[in-house]
Amino acid sequence: MKKRLYSIFTVALCAIAIFSTSAIDSKVTAKADPDKEAKTLISRMNKAVNEKAWNIAAGYAKQIAVHYDNRKIYDQAAQYYDLNARYWEKYGKPEWGIYNTIRADHIRTVVQTYAEVPITQNRALEKFEPVAGAYVGLYPAGKTFSGSPSKSEEAFGKKHAIYLTYTHFNRLYEGGHAFPVKYAEEVKQLGGALQIGWEPHKGLDEVKDDEYMRQFAREANAAGIPVFLRFACEMNGDWTPWHGDPKKYVEKWRLVHDIMAEEAPNVAMVWAPNFLPRDNIDPYYPGDEYVDWVGFSLYTIPYSRGALKLGGNPIDYLRPLYEKYSKKPMMVSEGAVSFHSYQLGQDFTPWGVWQLANMYAYMPRLYPRLKAITYFDLDKRTTNYDNQNNNYDLHDSPPMLEAYKKFTSMPYFLTKVETGAMPDNPVTYKPISEAQNLSGKVNVFTYVKLPLGEQPYAVHLYSGSKLLLKRAYAPPFEMKVDFDALPASGKLTVKVLDKQFRILVTKEFPYKKA
């Protein structure tokens, strides 16, 4: 999708929220003792909190956060960025704190160890939802296969469950088809499912119960494959012609849903905002009975708006949305990692490989209702409809391609779409302290996130503080631990190391076998 900068008004509000606090007390910032400066600001913030002057408290919280951020005391900085967002929410302006929570995520250290446990299914599944695992999907726009699903399968040497394409309202294909019949036939030959971004480029008024829509629905049904229909996606972004009228959007969405339910039972309706902005999404939600899946466009890029964003992480970007909308099965309906910034003329491949690990090796395990990820395989230089700042084309980077193949070949990923699908060994993952019945050899992994995209070299796992159990040297830092050889309860200690084997983080996790 074409993405412009947010409106001048929105940017101005964000700027007020982020920068105006520096003028609260210029004398404070001139103090020589940084600890005394922090204590003074904290005292003033607490006074504002006691008075419920939330806008003033938010301003001081931001100053404290920046103070610690500049001193590279990142965990404390993250704490106060989060407080800034909380106080803006109490003030009635939650959108003013969003970019501060994002900064908090960029600099926060997270270390958590998870255990693999059998899955228990105790709820009804939505259309095409797997019991466990996640579908691997692809938008095949890379230069080596020019939009062809079959050529992309040859190029990747692997199957994908879902292939993505786009069409717009009232477009007719060769032979007078309203539906991309030829593309669907190619996907069917591969045993795949189809995801369609269906876009009303002339606005919502062209969405009508007319012969074009009925023909589209009938041809979708005749395709004989699962279809994920992503109608008017990214509606929360002002770069789309269908943005700005949530009431009309909901009305049109429900119309499309009802026609598909009548004409094309093989169509699952995917409601799919962009991951930002996230403060204006709710009014566009059509209602649970009209939505089968929730999807998000989710891109991780190293440079944006004049600054490096190396602390950006798809797991963090998705988290607040997952917490809110995972009552439905979720998908990354389109997403990618940029490994080259054309704005900087700089390669970020090692960082990109790590972000692919976050996207595929970690994210579906941390978010078990994330049931599909479709990679947007495209070099933006080859487009004329959007900014040309980033390269997502995996075949332009052998390390990125190798990492993608490795991570998407994990047994957790599914290559066939059907309701109730599951891997051969259906499992889920629990934090080690929450896992029960730990016995025998158990697969565990450790999620590590360091400030500003720093990458750890190794993870060592100890029983207690001295007995080394396992080492791992690549994400997702998987290990097989024999719990029968461990005490009935105790602590596992994780040590995160850099290339010089200096300890960066040490964290303990209590466990109980029964």
From TrEMBL:
Signal peptide: 1-23
Taxonomy, superkingdom: Bacteria
GH26 domain residues: 93-404
Gene Ontology BP terms: substituted mannan metabolic process
GO MF annotation, one: mannan endo-1,4-beta-mannosidase activity
Keyword flag Signal: yes
Record has Magnesium as a keyword: no
Active-site annotation: E234, E334
Protein keywords: Glycosidase, Hydrolase, Signal
InterPro entries in UniProt: GH, GH26_dom, Glyco_hydro_26
Family as reported in the entry's similarity comment: Belongs to the glycosyl hydrolase 26 family.
Protein name: Copper amine oxidase
